[in-house]
């Protein structure tokens, strides 16, 4: 019960952080490791627990996908295939191997999170804020290939995958930040969904913890939703970055 209470509290904080600035995974995953959950199971459990929140986020952007149906449908294929391959790679990774890899994953994901603010400023300086490019658009082969590789990472670990997707969308010339967010959330649902299903079928998920995490993050996100626009994102981003880097150092030292 003490373990479930602790993870519920961390998940609530994670949900609140996600509602303000994102990066909640950088809190929940190290917390699961700290509570003694094996690394591979911790990653699988976190993926399953956070998927409902990703679904709710995607539904909030469904209107922004109007005119981008070709992108959504065609990107779903490499997203699902990449997520399945990433999940398969995790299944083939032992706990000892993953324990050696995960400090680097957390460290790199934290760096991605730390630069997200500057990346979004750059994107907003190069794309349009209004939905004035609502006509049909055609996906490119390069984007499909890039999405496949991003989805492999998303299915394997995933923290920071959304930041990479936004960067790719901007670099290939997308011109609507709202549509980019919609496609990012849609594809996250695809590769995280197939990975979560794979982990569940293979019995890697600690279901009591996953359910508590899902409830805790939902409560935290809902409770903070009204304050999300009033809390300085820089403060939250700085705190999560410090925690993420601290977690990476702890993981390096405890390998």
From the structure above, extract its key features.
255 residues; mainly alpha
Strand content: under 5%
Element-by-element helix/strand order: HHHHHHHHHH
Number of E-type strands: 0
Q: Please summarize the sheet with the most strands.
A: none
Structural class: mainly alpha
Give the end-to-end Cα distance, rounded to a whole number of Å: 27 Å
**Number of domain modules:** 1
Categorize the overall geometry: globular
* Cα-atom radius of gyration: 17 Å
Poorly predicted regions are: 129-136
Specify the number of helices.
10
The helix fraction, in percent, is over 70%
Overall pLDDT level: 79
Topology summary:
Blueprint (H helix, E strand, L loop, with lengths): L1 H19 L4 H10 L4 H22 L8 H23 L3 H32 L14 H16 L4 H11 L5 H25 L5 H19 L7 H21 L2
Describe this structure in words.
- Helix content is 78%, strand content 0%.
- By secondary structure, it is an all-alpha fold.
- It has one domain (2-253).
- 47% of the residues are buried.
């Amino acid at each position: 019960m003490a373990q479930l209470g602790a993870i519920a509290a961390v998940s609530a904080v994670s949900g609140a952080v996600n509602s303000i600035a994102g990066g909640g995974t950088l809190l929940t995953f190290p917390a699961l490791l700290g509570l003694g959950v094996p690394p591979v199971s911790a990653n699988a459990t976190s993926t399953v627990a956070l998927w409902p929140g990703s679904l709710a986020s995607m539904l909030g952007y469904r209107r922004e996908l109007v005119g981008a149906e070709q992108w959504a449908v065609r990107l779903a294929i490499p997203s699902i295939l990449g997520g399945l391959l990433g999940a398969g790679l995790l299944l083939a990774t032992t706990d000892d191997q993953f324990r050696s890899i995960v400090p680097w994953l957390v460290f790199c994901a934290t760096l991605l999170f730390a630069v997200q603010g500057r990346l979004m400023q750059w994107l907003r300086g190069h794309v349009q804020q209004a939905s004035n490019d609502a006509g049909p658009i055609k996906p490119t082969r390069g984007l499909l290939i890039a999405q496949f590789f991003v989805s492999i990472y998303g299915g394997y670990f995933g923290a920071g995958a959304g930041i990479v997707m936004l960067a790719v969308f901007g670099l290939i010339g997308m011109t609507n930040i709202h549509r980019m967010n919609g496609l990012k959330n849609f594809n996250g649902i695809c590769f995280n969904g197939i990975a979560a299903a794979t982990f569940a079928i293979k019995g890697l998920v600690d279901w009591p913890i996953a359910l508590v995490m899902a409830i805790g993050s939902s409560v935290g996100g809902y409770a903070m939703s009204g304050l999300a626009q009033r809390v300085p994102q820089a403060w939250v981003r700085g705190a999560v970055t410090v925690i993420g880097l601290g977690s990476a150092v702890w993981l390096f030292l405890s390998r």
